[in-house]
Model the fold of this input.
Amino acid sequence: MTEVEKGVQTVLVTEEEIRQRLCELGKEVSAVYQGQDLLLVTLLKGAVVFLADFMRALECHCEIDFLVTSSFGGGAMKIIKDLEVPIEGRHVLIVEDILDSGIKLSKIKDMLEARNPASVRIVTLLDKPSRRKADVNADFTGFVIPDEFVVGYGLDYDEKYRNLPFVGVLKPEVYTG
Ligand code: IMP
Ligand code: MG
Done:
């Protein structure tokens, strides 16, 4: 067992389950965007692992770009790194690791929609619908999970555990030190 795996209490989604689901998701999403001008917009950093596997499961053409925003309380969202390309008239698919309260994604979706793209949809690896506060839902979802704080496959606790190849729940002692 690696030092990273030692922090994990339970595995929620295995590597094999992720691999199989991404294969299905790739086919589902490709059918929608066949022949269209698709831009995958990924929010750094959590969604990078998902993006890398998801884009290779796509059977249609796509381009990628990255967006970095500040974390925010009740205030305005600040763009730390904007997209490099204009999105007017293009089909945008936001690639996200986890949809939780939905506050962050609803703000990002509004911001992108204001730039007059042909469409804005969301694909998320994980969805915790029981936690939703904002009026936003994913168009494509990998796995619906219960209300637990998860790490791995890009998701972090205090910037660590992103490199686990599966999604898991941490041991309580990791939080309590
Ligand atoms: P929200 O949907 O606006 O609440 O924010 C979602 C963001 O919170 C995600 O992009 C993650 O960075 C983070 N997040 C939410 N739930 C978890 C979790 O269970 N593990 C790790 N990060 C999480
Ligand atoms: Mg995080």
Q: What stands out?
A: The mean pLDDT is 95. Residues 46, 156 surround magnesium ion (ligand 2) (CB under 6 Å). Residues 2 and 164 are 10 Å apart (CA to CA). The first strand starts at residue 8 and ends at 13.
